[in-house]
Specification:
- It contains 14 helices and 19 strands.
- The chain is of the alpha/beta class.
Length: 451
């Protein structure tokens, strides 16, 4: 069946507008509770959130839904997404929920779901949830005596802080490093500075005063300009920019230059391979990762396996093929030795460990390859399937032939908007621009003719 609610990363939308209404959040709680209500034990769900104003509304609605389905709800409050995944397992919960729209503005919100193993749900289970949401859920409600209880859990921040610290060897300290961190006024505003300080760093924190409406607002990994200025201002050795739910990270070097997820994966992969910690013979990334990363890994005898866009697809490939490093250019870095989903803070700690080990500036440590010129543009369409048009298909084939082995072409529909994303990369920047602009024109003409 066609998906009505779930996108590439759970359910997401504008707060108090379908589908992100309290009514649907409650129904999701009932539907998910019904699916995970297996066995005779007392069932439980852990529910975390970021700092959005709408989080209060959706949290209460989901608690109502899960308790109505007979699950006990453990309420965590504002906490990073990877902490929810970790606590789902350590608290032996049947399901975990993160209420967050990640890097989106505060007006949006979303629901991310984790199974008892801490991994995001499969397409099959999401399909079953969708089916239940279209039905009358009255028959799925628990009997009066079996209604769940709700309890706010204390100490969860401390548990995650200790978990993050343990991802580094005991003899690694961050003493001598001045670290500027931007918490995006989001879920990590308490835990991230604490981890860095307890590991010995001198910490300068921004983006740690959430109001409910300033999450990701001119801050965080999608707007790192403020952090770049702060790095210059305080002469920091490194800047760390998290997003609203702290599952992605962007680094700023001591010169204020941005380091993206591709470079971070290259640093970690090379370091772990040297220490014989890297499994799978390489790393996993999406089709959007730069060709320069693939060439760099090849020069080190390592491989790059590519998946569809979305960290859940990266994780699936990692699990099925025994990789322990994967991620996205956007800064989702998944290190399966330490967790089941992207963790911006833990990834940043691995980079800091490499900086300490090598004793060199971040600008040197984190520039592992020269990115190949890459251009991404979007074209909006109002209906139909532009990518099935004969003229578009011929233009794509011609572009691929022109690039040959010296570049790549990735064309895909957006998973959340009526957009076609056109990305090309290659050694010749002018050629890349010509190809992308030409394809945008062809797809745009098809859209206009259809209209």
């Amino acid at each position: 069946m066609a998906r009505r609610y779930f996108g590439t990363d759970g359910i997401r939308g504008h707060s108090n507008v379908f589908p992100m209404t309290p009514d649907l959040a409650m129904r999701v709680g009932i539907a998910v509770g019904t699916i995970f209500r297996n066995g005779s034990h007392r069932h439980r769900v852990v529910i975390g959130k970021d700092t959005r104003l709408s989080g209060y509304m959706l949290e209460n609605a989901m608690v109502a839904g899960f308790t109505a389905a007979g699950l006990d709800a453990f309420i965590l409050g504002p906490i990073p997404t990877p902490a929810v995944a970790m606590l789902t397992r350590s608290l032996r919960a049947d399901v975990g929920v993160m209420i967050s729209a990640s890097h989106n503005p505060f007006e949006d919100n979303g629901i991310k779901l984790f199974g008892p193993d801490g991994y995001k749900l499969s397409d099959e289970i999401e399909g079953r949830i969708e089916e239940l949401l279209e039905q009358d859920l009255t028959s799925q409600l628990a009997k009066s005596v079996d209604i769940g209880r709700a309890k706010r859990i204390d100490g969860v921040h401390d548990r995650y802080v200790e978990h993050a610290k343990r991802t580094l060897p005991r003899d690694v300290t961050l003493q001598g490093l001045r670290v500027a961190i931007d918490c995006a006024n989001g879920a990590a505003y308490k835990v991230a500075p604490s981890v860095l300080w307890e590991l010995g760093a001198e910490v300068v924190t921004i983006g740690n005063e959430p109001t409910g409406t300033n999450i990701n607002l001119d801050c965080g990994s999608t707007s790192p300009e403020r952090l770049q200025k702060k790095v210059h201002e305080v002469r920091a050795d490194i800047g760390i920019a998290l997003d609203g739910d702290a599952d992605r990270v962007i680094i700023v070097d001591e010169h204020g230059e941005i380091v993206d997820g591709d470079q971070l994966m290259a640093v970690i992969a090379e370091s772990w391979a040297q220490d014989q910690r890297l499994t799978g013979g390489g790393i996993v990334a999406t089709v959007m990762s730069n060709l320069g990363l693939e060439r760099f890994l090849g020069s080190k005898g390592l491989t790059l396996a590519r998946t569809k866009v979305g960290d859940r697809y990266v994780v699936e490939h990692m699990r099925h093929n025994d990789f322990n490093v994967g991620g996205e250019q956007s800064g989702h870095i998944v290190l399966s030795d330490f967790g089941t989903t992207g963790d911006g803070l833990v990834a940043a700690l691995q980079i800091l460990a490499c900086v300490k080990k090598l004793g060199r500036p971040v600008s040197e440590v984190c520039r592992r390859f020269e990115p190949v010129p890459q251009l991404l543009k979007n074209v909006r369409f109002s209906g139909g399937k532009p990518l099935e048009d004969l003229a578009v298909r011929q233009a794509i084939a011609d572009a691929e032939g022109e690039l040959g082995s010296k570049g790549r072409l990735v064309i895909r529909p957006s998973g959340t908007e009526p957009l076609i994303r056109v990305m090309a990369e290659g050694d010749d920047r002018a050629q890349v621009e010509k190809i992308v602009n030409g394809l945008i024109d062809v797809i745009g003409n098809v859209r206009s003719e259809a209209a």
